[in-house]
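User: quick one - fold this with nickel (II) ion bound?
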Amino acid sequence: MILPIVAYGDPVLKKEAEEIEEKYPELNQLIASMFETMYEASGVGLAAPQVGKSIRLFIVDGSPFAEPEEDGSIDPKAIGLENFKKVFINPIIEEESGEEWGFNEGCLSIPEIREEVYRKEKVTLSYYNEKWELKEEVFEGYAARIVQHEYDHVDGVLFTDRISPLKKRLLSKKLSNISKGDVKVSYRMKFPLRKKQR
Ligand code: NI
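Assistant: Sure. Structure tokens for the protein plus nickel (II) ion:
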């Protein structure tokens, strides 16, 4: 089932989400709906707070990054991403290391805005997968980037919290328009300040 994606300004996006237990009701259904919702919106990651659930769960599918460039080359940061489809439940960042690098991030909750965000190269995450197997893995390149961005969502942090106050001020009008639903978007959204919901 395609779920509406919550837009910038909704308090659920600013809340630190709660861990869940294995008996969380209809978890498999929720995960399936999140994948359907993410694909419909052409995203590479989606966190539960973005569909209005304040729980520590996110999904990723980085395969769009694995598409070769026009000249047939593959970006080294995208190596292995064709199989990077995962579910992360109750994730914990164990370590982040390496140099910080800038990447122009976007977010399904903040359509039409992209900004350069700096994050470390490598991230070690422990988490449960959809079968509730405990995993610990190291991610690099775009895989790390996607995981770091989605992990932020379950902590109530958006990429706009990681840009300079000046840049954020320059975006303030656009951000308030997004909250009001005054933005062109091709997927279903829920806007916190929209007078009449679609
Ligand atoms: Ni996002």
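One thing worth noting: The pocket of nickel (II) ion is lined by residues 107-109, 149, 153 (CB under 6 Å).
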